[in-house]
């Protein structure tokens, strides 16, 4: 039996061969990598629903409600359908409502503001309003129908593709 003398110790391993060293290096490296990934994701996918000035936005909402009430007092409603790449609107109104030559129709996508668009609908000889539907894609849309002077508005939520006709009423 040979005994190891007490004055001789086992040779020390280099630091890069120690598992605890790598464990301590990987922890902060992982958190930094995750932080960089999250920051880059947040920068490329901005949240667009945040409003800076809530007071002004609240005042604007009150004005919008007045426009909807005016549309209700005129007895306005519209029947919307999409045929052969055209949006057709049949607007119903009472005698108090002003005559209309053209309407502005705005489409706001529920989640993707890049898809939002606006078209001008002109009145045909048969009384229907017609606009181009080439930008309209499948999905959930908030539709706003307004005259040029923006005195009233009809706002309604629709799902495209439309199944037949969609009735738009001021809400």
From TrEMBL:
The keyword Transmembrane helix applies. InterPro entries: FixH. Keywords: Membrane, Transmembrane, Transmembrane helix. The chain crosses the membrane at residues 20-39. It holds the Pfam family FixH. It comes from the Bacteria. This is Nitrogen fixation protein FixH.
């Amino acid at each position: 039996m040979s005994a190891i003398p007490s004055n001789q110790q086992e040779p020390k391993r280099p630091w890069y061969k120690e598992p605890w060293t790598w464990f301590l290096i990987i922890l902060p490296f992982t958190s930094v990598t995750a932080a960089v990934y999250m920051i880059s994701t947040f920068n490329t996918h901005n949240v667009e629903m945040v409003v800076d000035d809530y007071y002004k936005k609240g005042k604007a909402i009150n004005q919008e409600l007045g426009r909807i009430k005016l549309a209700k007092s005129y007895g306005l409603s519209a029947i919307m359908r999409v045929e052969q790449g055209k949006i057709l609107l049949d607007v119903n109104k009472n005698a108090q409502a002003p005559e209309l030559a053209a309407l502005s129709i705005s489409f706001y996508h529920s989640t993707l503001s890049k898809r939002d668009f606006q078209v001008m609908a002109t009145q045909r000889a048969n009384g229907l309003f017609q606009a181009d539907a080439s930008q309209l894609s499948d999905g959930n849309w908030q539709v706003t129908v307004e005259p040029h002077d923006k005195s009233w508005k009809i706002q309604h939520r629709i799902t495209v593709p439309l199944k037949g006709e969609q009735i738009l009423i001021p809400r």
